[in-house]
Every structure is written in structure tokens, then in C-alpha cells.
Amino acid sequence: CESRGELLVSLSYQPVTHRLNVVVLKAKHLPTMDITGLSGNPYVKVNVFYGRKRIAKKKTHVKKCTLNPVFNESFIYDVPAELMPDISVEFLVIDFDRTTKNEVVGRLVLGGQSPIPSGVTHWREVCDNPRRQIAKWHNLIEY
């Protein structure tokens, strides 16, 4: 299975203001999705789920002609502390394409229900260390 690339994200939770701060920092080693083999135009869609229900969505700007984009975009979500154990944050790295359908390059889920152990660990660290920005690289998985 070929690599889907990696995504560097940083999270912190502010218990006093009930704010979850999600920062999409950068991606690296993204595969080319176009048939032409030209480098991609990636952006990241951030979905916040409570259980299985999506409660918020935002997206970064498109980074033109790069497979190692730097986003440095921050999103703030209001999340009451008692809901934190049931929250998960999904990151979809998408290749923007003007002519055909945008393609999902890879996916990352952080939270207690994450399909990858590093996603659960990262989330646990964020919950156990309120007010601290915790950044980690994660391998993207197939969507």
C-alpha cells in the first residue's frame, strides 16, 4: 500500500473557555493524484464529530502546486468539557482539481474513536494536558 503522506497537526483544549484549538500546520510526502503526474493543489477539510454526528466543519486554503504544503491555519471550536471524551476531529487532505472531482488524498481521525493508535494517544495527551499545544505528525490513511 503506497503512502498517503503525513499531516502535522496541533491541538489544545482551554477548559475555562471550553475551546478546542485545532491547528493544521503542514503536510509532507503527499502522493500525486492527477493522471498528468503534476503536483497537487491540496487543502484540508476539518470535521468535528460528537459521536457519529458532525457538529462543525471548516477548511484551509488551497496550496497550489505542492506535495509538501504549509498551511499554518488555526480553527477554534466551542466544546463543553463534558463532551470532550465523545469528540473526534477528522482531517481530510483533499486535492483540489478545477476540471475533475476533488480527490481525497488521505484521512486522519483524532479522538477516542480513532482507527489508529497514534490518533487515540494524541487525543488523550490533549485531554490530559489542558492549555498545552500538542503537535504531532500522523500518517494519513485511505479514506
TrEMBL record:
InterPro entries noted in UniProt: C2_dom (IPR000008), C2_domain_sf (IPR035892), Synaptotagmin (IPR001565)
Limits of the C2 domain: 3-138
PROSITE patterns in the cross-refs? C2 (PS50004)
The alphabetized UniProt keywords are:
Repeat
- Keyword Repeat in the entry? The reply is yes
What Pfam family is a match for this entry?
C2
Family classification = Belongs to the synaptotagmin family.
The name under which this protein is listed is C2 domain-containing protein
Q: Which organism is it from?
A: Cirrhinus mrigala (Mrigala)
**The organism's lineage?**
Eukaryota, Metazoa, Chordata, Craniata, Vertebrata
